[in-house]
Specification:
Length: 543
């Protein structure tokens, strides 16, 4: 079929335009494209020849057909068959799809009325070229009305694998190979970064068409429904496309190594000033990456968001006195602190740094059921639809009431987050405003990133940074030990989220240092500062 296309392509590309015009006119009833009439057309025709074909008749009919085809005279070739219209349509169809710029046909020794012949077709698409070589066979028969020797038309004349309704096409088949690279152009492969396998596959699926790659040029046979039946030849390897990401290969290795030391868990690193995701670590490797798609109660790391709400509602201020009782009952539930501690005569800064649950729960009676949901969305972008460049779970803060609303203030209840979401919380505080995290630069596809409906005031941002810094530096801060090795302008927050049916809580930690923020969760491991804190510290130190 590629061969047929070649002939047609030659015809169209050179003097063949005339032949194609004649083919179309002949379809409407004009004489163009038919075999020339004999000089004795006005005389009474003689009797039609009968009997077996001679070797000379077989050779002559085959030579005339092959010569017309090779020269690009598709109409002339079709006229030398016993099904001129069908042959002409097939040749014309192949011309449009074959991509063939030239064809050479070499006759082999005939076997009675069958003539095998070699086909060499040159194909081209854009700047890609190739060659298709094969052997086909034609059969010479007597035309029923005239008795003249003609080629018996069937699709297999064009290629032996063609059946009725099939078509031969030459095109760039399938998807091009795609290479995903980090922010510095280093390749990110699933072999080198198995924890990213599902993420890279997702990115490739989304952006393959925008990668700039080209699929391999191939000649293939398709059936009447357009489905592939057989690839006859692949002419080029194609050119790989390239999809950029915001990831940093070096930091990715460091983050994954930090998680692997714990034997399980996930972590994300984000650049606060831009929202660029620099690392996504996870263990064990799963069909989905829990760092981006997981859904966990964030525990006390969520108190960063709750603190912003209390401060804006004038229910708390960093250095103002604030209650931290041993117990507080609300909505029929009795809440307490870890080891039932209390802070007498303390400030909100102390309550935040020591992760006092009742300091937050005690303010629940002053809040509306939807206050926390709105705060998370409007200032931190949580619950909006993020356009990360890969599939993500973008956080959930449902409107709740009574005890469940109170529990949500300390990252329990119905609040659900993952390391991507909580790294963004730390980054939002450090930056002083929400920058939607993203893995693929928005310039790749001109997508619009999510924006927070409301700006965080400089005063609030500074107060939250102060609280997180105290938590990471003060002797009584729950994040101080984990963040001891981290330099720069730093802050942190620990969390331990209780899970029904789980002996140990999920350990959480979020932190930042200069223009790098990170979050980690180590499931069923215990205290956040002890188990997740070292992971975040290693990531921040590697940044």
């Amino acid at each position: 079929m590629a061969v047929i296309g070649a002939v047609c392509a030659v015809a169209v590309g050179t003097a063949g335009f005339g032949a194609y015009a004649l083919v179309d006119q002949d379809e409407a009833g004009s004489p163009g494209g038919s075999r020339p009439a004999s000089a004795a057309d006005d005389s009474k025709p003689g009797p039609a020849a009968t009997g077996p074909l001679s070797a000379g008749e077989v050779r002559g009919a085959a030579e005339e057909f092959l010569a017309a085809w090779e020269s690009g005279d598709a109409a002339g070739a079709a006229a030398r068959t016993d099904a001129e219209s069908a042959a002409r349509k097939a040749l014309a169809a192949f011309a449009e799809d074959g991509g063939v710029t030239g064809v050479q046909l070499t006759e082999r020794a005939s076997q009675q009325d069958e003539v095998p012949f070699e086909v060499t077709a040159e194909v081209e698409q854009g700047e890609a070229t190739g060659t298709l070589e094969y052997v086909s066979t034609l059969t010479v028969v007597r035309e029923q009305d005239t008795g003249k020797p003609v080629v018996h038309w069937e699709p297999a004349v064009l290629h032996p694998d063609l059946a009725e309704g099939d078509q031969l096409v030459t095109d760039a088949q399938g998807d091009p190979e795609v290479i995903t690279v980090d922010r510095d152009g280093n390749e990110l492969s699933a072999e080198d970064f198995p924890e990213l396998k599902s993420v890279l596959a997702d990115i490739t699926k989304r952006y393959a068409e925008k990668s700039g790659g080209t699929a391999p040029l191939a000649t293939r046979i398709v059936d009447a429904q357009g489905k592939d039946k057989k690839v006859l030849a692949q002419h080029t390897e194609g050119t790989p496309g390239e999809i950029p990401t915001t990831l940093d290969a070096g930091l990715q290795r460091a983050a994954q190594a930090a998680v692997e030391k714990k034997g399980k868990g996930s972590a994300v690193a984000v650049k606060p000033s831009t929202g660029e995701v620099l690392a996504v670590a996870a263990l064990p490797v799963q069909s989905f990456n829990p760092a981006l798609r997981g859904s966990y109660a964030p525990g006390s790391t969520w108190k960063v968001v709750s603190a912003s709400l209390l401060i804006e509602k004038n229910l708390a201020s960093a250095d103002a006195p604030h209650p931290c009782p041993q117990y507080f009952e609300y909505g029929g539930w009795k809440f307490q602190n870890l080891d039932e501690f209390e802070i007498q005569g303390g400030t909100f800064r102390q309550s935040f740094a020591r992760s006092c649950n009742t300091a937050f729960i005690s303010q629940a009676p002053e809040l509306a059921d939807d206050d926390l949901t709105q705060q998370a969305r409007d200032l931190f972008g949580l619950g909006l639809t993020w356009q990360v460049g890969a599939g993500t779970f973008d956080g959930s803060v449902p409107v709740q009431s009574n005890a469940q609303m109170a529990a949500s203030l300390i990252g329990q209840g119905g609040v659900r987050m993952n390391p991507l979401n909580m790294a963004s919380v730390a980054a939002t505080v450090k930056n002083g405003g929400f920058k939607q995290p993203h893995l693929v630069p928005p310039t790749v596809d001109d997508r619009t990133l999510a924006t927070a409906p409301r700006a965080m005031s400089p005063a609030l941002a500074q107060e939250l940074r102060s609280l997180m810094n105290t938590t990471a530096t003060a002797p009584y801060g729950t994040a101080t030990q984990a963040m001891a090795s981290v330099g720069g302008d730093k802050g942190g927050k620990t969390g331990s989220a209780e899970v029904d049916g789980q002996e140990l809580p999920n350990a959480w930690f979020i932190g930042y240092s200069d223009d790098l923020a990170a979050a980690a969760v180590i499931p069923a491991s215990g205290h956040g500062g002890t188990n997740a804190g070292p992971v975040v510290a290693e990531i921040l130190n590697a940044g």
